[in-house]
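Q: Can I borrow your eye for a moment on a structure tokenisation matter? Would you mind producing a protein record, from residues through to fold? Write it directly below this note and I will take it from there.
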Amino acid sequence: MLRCCDGEEFAVAVSVARKCGMISNMIDDDCVEGGVPLPNVKAPAMSMVLEYLNTKHSAAAEEAKAFEKAFFEKMTKEALFEVILAANYLHAEELLDAAMKCAADRITGKTVPELREYFGIENDFTPEEEEEIRKEKPLGVRLRKLRGFSFIV
């Protein structure tokens, strides 16, 4: 039994629970009697974590791929961040990797003002400071490739 910080409990198969490194370690150390407290995981996030793990665990490869795409497409930004935090805490590596890729895909190509808006970051530069930064680092910063790695020059 997994017990979230908001009191909700989830029954989960051991095979699915073992997809989370933290819980797997607790099982190995015989520390699951009476349930597993998850003080850093909220029930809505845990529900999504379990939906992902259960489906990925039981679906065929093509079905799993289609599920993953739909799973992240329907997710709000806030829910995605909660899932990332939960997957990180639980050491659910496959989910964490997929969620981080989704987050990266969502911000790729955004301008600085768009990123500020997306993440709710206030611009604390004065117009004068912004102009000074633009003079020091023009937008045409070049990337140089060296053996497959990109470097800003």
